[in-house]
Amino acid sequence: MTDAVAEAPKASINTPAVIMFSISTVGALTVLPWYAWSHHLGAGPWIFFAFTMWATGLSITAGYHRLWSHRAYEAHWTLRLFYMLFGAMSLQNSTLIWASMHRVHHKNVDDIDNDPYSIKRGFWYAHMGWMLRNYPSSALDFSNARDLQQDPLVAFQHRHYLGLALGMNIAFPALVGAAFDDPWGFMLIGGLLRLVVNHHLTFFINSLAHYWGRRPYTADNTARDNDIIALFTYGEGYHNFHHLFQWDYRNGVRWWQFDPTKWWIAGWSAVGVTRGLRRVPEFKIQRAMLQRQFERTQEKLRACSHPGRLAELQKLFEHEMEAFSVTLNEWKKLQAERIDAARKQIAGQWEHSEARRRFQALEHSLRLQRRRVRLLRLQTA
Ligand SMILES: [Zn+2]
Ligand SMILES: [Zn+2]
């Protein structure tokens, strides 16, 4: 337990959450093994488990998170209906509450008093502890979610959350199971086991993804990029990128980074179900990564113990810093030209002119420079 947790005011127990987590955890550890041992479990409940894991997981990452919390794209009402139903099945509160708190998390990330699941209050607190008591940092205030209150599906789900959550977790698996002559098997595997596994996988985004991994884009907060975490969080393991560029529909920004949520959103855009997918310009991504390289190199230079070599490396470092500022100025000039062209309503002409080539050349020069600065940092070792 950290000092920060010890000093936190003792908040009252959040009884409904404690009951829900206790029943689901104890049930998954006792009733489920007993049932599996005393009954024959066919493939049906496991296929249903795979389906509900996928549907509830994506409803949280693509729906609650990237669509509703961050407005990273727009979705047809049929897809929003899917997110609304399976989001309720994931038992992580209504979209409105979840998204409002998540926006507070981004705004006050790592703040002990104001981030609802601040990692600075310890791993357990960020993972689950924050839900077990009525902490002041979790107080509801929908003033940051007025846009969501206008969405009829979000408003409906918020009004009827309990009925939807019970219906999706009990009635739905029981009905599907009854059709396959195994309602208890479907309820225990696709309902209960899926609930517990899915809970912890998504909770890892608040705990592990703020704890373990690298910080290639920003060191201003604790969020990390981690390929392993991405494997079991539906692609949300690229959390360092996400905290800097939260409106981008991608978390794993490179095509090879495992981010099924991004592929799901992009896949639906091919048939018009999603649209308006927002992407951060590549230049800004390269700029952030290069700035991080500069920071890390500067730390190494400060620790360098060879005075002769240090002077030489310092000179190279300053030269790179100057080159970086020249590139940034050129980019600002190009941006100003683009805005001017838009004002004169000749944006189309301008985009097809030399400008696109000049933008790409600037991006390329940042990439090359990042490699040079990395080599420079390695020489300081
Ligand atoms: Zn976070
Ligand atoms: Zn987020």
Task: Describe the protein.
This protein has 17 helices and 2 strands. It has about 375 residues and is mostly helical. It has 2 domains: about 5-275, no CATH class; about 280-380. Bound molecules: zinc ion (2 copies).
What compounds sit in this structure? Answer: zinc ion
> What strand order characterises the main sheet?
1-2
Task: Classify the beta-strand content into a percent band.
Answer: under 5%
Total number of strands: 2
Q: In percent, how helical is the residue content?
A: 55-70%
Assembly of the depicted chains: single chain
Mean pLDDT score:
92
Elements, N to C (H/E): HHHHEHHHHHHHHHHEHHH
Number of helices: 17
Rg to the nearest angstrom? 24 Å
Biggest sheet layout? 2 strands, antiparallel
Number of domains: 2
Question: Low-confidence spans: pLDDT under 50, at least 5 residues?
Answer: none
Termini separation comes to 35 Å
Q: Give the structural class.
A: mainly alpha
**Shape verdict:** globular
Keywords for this entry:
381 residues; mainly alpha; 2 domains; two-stranded antiparallel sheet; 2 strands; 68% helix; globular; binds zinc ion
Write a concise synopsis of the structure shown.
The protein has 381 residues and is an all-alpha fold. The protein folds into two domains: 3-275, no CATH class; 282-379. The protein has 17 helices and two strands.
Write the layout of secondary structure elements.
Elements: H1 3-7, H2 15-29, H3 31-38, H4 43-69, E1 74-75, H5 77-89, H6 95-107, H7 123-132, H8 146-149, H9 152-159, H10 161-179, H11 183-206, H12 227-232, H13 239-244, H14 260-269, E2 274-275, H15 282-303, H16 307-343, H17 347-379
Antiparallel strand pairs: 1-2
The chain binds zinc ion (2 copies).
One zinc ion is lined by residues 65, 69-70, 102, 106, 242, 246.
